[in-house]
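Aim 2, interim progress: modelling of the iron/sulfur cluster-bound target.
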Amino acid sequence: MPNILLTGVIGPHGNIHFDLAGDRLTRDQDIFTTSSHFHYVVLHFLAQNLSSPCVVLEHPSLEDFEDELRKGYDFVGINFTLVNIVKTMQMCEAVRRVAPQTKIVLGGYGTSCFTTIFKGNQEIQKLADYICHGEGVSFLRKLLGEPIDAPISQPLGPRGASGMPWLDPSPPGSGGFVISGLGCPNMCEFCCTSHFYGGEYIEIAKAERLFEGMKRIWRFQPESCDTVGIFDENLYKDKEKVARLGKLIREDEEFGLGRISYFSFGTIEDLSRYDVVEDLVLNGVGTIWIGVESRFSTLPKRQGREVKEVFDELHAHGITTIGSWIGGWDFHDKKNIEEDLEYFISLEPTQSQLFPLYPPPGTNLYERLVSEGRLPEISLAKTYFGRTSGAEFGFPDWKKNFTEGEISAIVEGGHRRLYEHAGPSAMRTLRVQLNGYEFCKNSAHQVLRERRSELHKARCIEAYPLIETCEFFAPNAKVRAKIGEIRRDYHRLLGEPTVRQEVMSSYAFLKGCLYKMETVVGRPPPGEPPLRRYEYDRNPRGPLDRPYATVYPHCDERFQHEKQVYENEMRLLNRVVELLEQGKPLDEAEPAARRIHQVFENLDAIGQAAKLVDELGGDVGLSKGWLRSEVLKGLETVGAKVSEERIEAQNLQ
Ligand code: B12
Ligand code: SF4
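Predicted structure of the complex, ligand included:
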């Protein structure tokens, strides 16, 4: 059987992170920006649907990649996006040099470069032996001589995670992804995923197989009940599938609505055909990512009910949202873009993604702009892509009423404005979970009263310890009042906090203050994700074993250290909780517990110190704008260097 290596692109990734929550969904929320990590679901999906032995690599450096190639593979499959064209070229060159007998297969959205910007360029076409321009399982099975119509199994991959980096630097993995379908017939002009599949919808799994995949993921993580993601550009287009999946979840004895909820993508057009309770809440929907794009959009997918009405209704019934907004359409001018953004902010999406409009090659938007002479000639684009490091994917100024700089500033400002209006996403989520709990508790449906309410309750209990820190560091009085109301509603609905919740609140507050101070004086940028190697050796494994063995070839010392510190802290806190629950006075406890007690007694002073450091940050030359944008992205600028020097000078005095 042929030997396959499947890999993502080489690092370092620079500012093209794998941190969806930090970079986008909770961007610029002060210390409440969560951080997350993602895995290559797609590589595991491919590996788990082939019978040939495979190795999957995540985040190799060029050297790691070359070392792996030397082990001898028949095929190397690379997944890449357009921003990573240059890295992909480098990898192809490495394969030809180090392992000339290995055949190269390219796949993923990046391959659209071969039909657009590199169309007809013989030299570049020769980079790879095979290019997959669509669904990959059938492509690889055909290439490897495996049965094409064998059933497709849902992936059970490594788990991603997200959380406040200062609370738990390495939160346990949660959730997972199943794949319902690829592509979308709507073909919105700017959308590269629908164009990639030529406007077709390729169904990967019916409701029954999806549910099996979801249950399999849940069985592997009974301790951390969280949400499973369903990849489908437009799940809610198929109302019958959503209903069938919902029935399976609702009637499931093992998990049911008390444990299972899911995330997927939906449009206003489709959601307008749904009843929020009968068709969504009762069907196990947890979070919906809705492309709002713009209040003024005439895209068919945006037609239907008033957008705000849809968001409000979802939130009122316990369904969280990710809203996305795009700035820089032709119809945007300097005045109406403000109105548009203001409207988006008023939706208070639980999480958000704000982006400038950009024309991915392969879309109708790209074609139109080229034909209107608004984008450089394709040959120029070729040079452009070839010249950059790959990290600066973007286009020269082409927007009607904005330069790229102007639009970026508006988008960046939008994150902050949303935070200053709606507060941290952690509290927006808690608001929605409380709403869900109250709604379910009072519902006429027994299954909501008895089961789904438990899911909301568990999430509220988990989020409680963050309330105090969010309230204390709220960006303004309006947000502080909103959080105060959340606290009151929590107490009204779920009673007084337990001893553990109180202790965890104090701990969160302490850690939040420390992080705040660290933010002001400058924190090292997040590290590169570590190399992970997954071996699909095809040896028989039990039903509750993962289908691969994982190896971390390089020790990540920072990660190990932070994890160790966290575990020690948790041991100590557990001891404190134990003592308090037994009614034993902490000032008579063993020294470690006594010290924690003393620190907790002084939280007010620590909080004031953190606020002071925050305020002084500006005076010592640390502009808040720099802290927000550059520290977040881990970029170095001249301004940043100057600020660092000033801080060092101040420290020496
Ligand atoms: C999950 C996701 C992420 C995750 C994980 C990324 C990862 N590498 O796995 C995170 C959050 C980290 C992420 C980051 C980014 N992402 Co992203 N992401 C997605 C998302 C939502 C789903 C992708 C997915 O796994 N789908 C499920 C799989 C099964 O389907 P698929 O990708 O279509 O794969 C099939 C085929 O393409 C093919 N195939 C794919 N790879 C291969 C490889 C081989 C060898 C073969 C034969 C076949 C094959 O077979 C697969 C199964 O049929 C898509 C949007 C979307 N709705 O699809 C964007 C998307 C892929 N991301 C995109 C972008 C721009 C980014 C970022 C650059 C964002 C940023 N500015 O930082 C970074 C780049 C990170 C990186 N270095 O690769 C763009 C890519 C645009 C383009 N034309 O290239 C997309 C399409 C979003 C969009 N609409 O613009 N992303
Ligand atoms: S509805 Fe969404 S996925 Fe479908 S074409 Fe439009 S933007 Fe793309």
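The pocket of iron/sulfur cluster (ligand 2) is lined by residues 184, 186-188, 191, 193-194, 233-234, 267, 291, 301 (CB under 6 Å). The longest strand covers residues 285-293.
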